[in-house]
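User: Predict the structure for this protein chain, please.
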Amino acid sequence: MSQRSIIINPRIQVGVGLIEILVSIVIAMLLVLVIYQIYEISEAQKRTITAGSDAQQNAAFGLYELTRDLATAGNGIASAATTLDQCALLRPIPVLIEAGATASDPDRVTVLYGGSASLSTPVPFMQSSAVNTYVVQAPVGFSAGDVVAAVQGAKCTLSTINAGGVAVDGTTGFATLTVTPVAGDLGATYPAVNASVVNLGSVQAMTRVAYTVDATAHALRTQKQLPNNDPVAPLVSDVVNLKAQYGLDTDNDGIIDTWQDATGGVWAAANLPTQPLATLRQIRAVRVAIVTRSAQYEKDPVTTGPLGLFCSPPATPCPVEISVAGDDQHYRYKVLETVVPLRNALWNPS
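Assistant: Here is the predicted structure, written as structure tokens:
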């Protein structure tokens, strides 16, 4: 049996050379770069969409909270407006708008309402009062924890009824209220004539609450001022502006005749509290707008402005226009607005 010799040609190279390895590395790097670019663009779009959605939700929630209070404005106050008319602490102004210095500066909106479930009309004193004791005629109209206002002309005291502070005389039917004054003329006493008590409901149902915007933190804030003066509390983030206007029924026909800014003259926040009751009763609605800004800073300007508010029906220019300049143009904005009829003003037009 013969054996064959296998001769290997030393000139034939087997395997992958250095050049092929370098080419493969370059191709792989290009693929990684392309994938990274696609991922970066996808993540940027995701952040933009998420930030825009957050801004939309913040605007919707802030508008909901504000309109809920606006819809209640004047409750328990409108029916006692004549009695409260001279009380500086509780003048029957359902909504007070303090306009910002410019369109780009947020307004301040303060809402006043009560919430008595059983009694909303003034009740006369049946005998002269002590500082912490009121004797009134309506024995079933008051409960412990209610907020009551004692009023005689310009003199008024806001108090809360103490626990167990309602005692009914079985003979006369009069109720003796033991109260703790919390605001107004704290040491005042009231005579049995020309003085009244107004029940404003429980501490949880009665309030004067102010809505403001923190221009530095970009947050919508609330502060409950009555019956107690609570600290300012943040409510919604990414809010950059708040604007409101009065809807006025100037001829008392039940129809809004004009939308009035809270600037200058009668309707300025500094002047409105001193106006007669007939002027205050012209306020039948409020339209309000909240502007939120996304948290995502975009590389290129995406909002040139101005942002138009209250443009329905279409108007050129819009009643309120907010300028957007500099770095502010690198953010996306959401504007939500609505009209809130003051139902308690409509129910108590006289």
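The chain has a mean pLDDT of 88.
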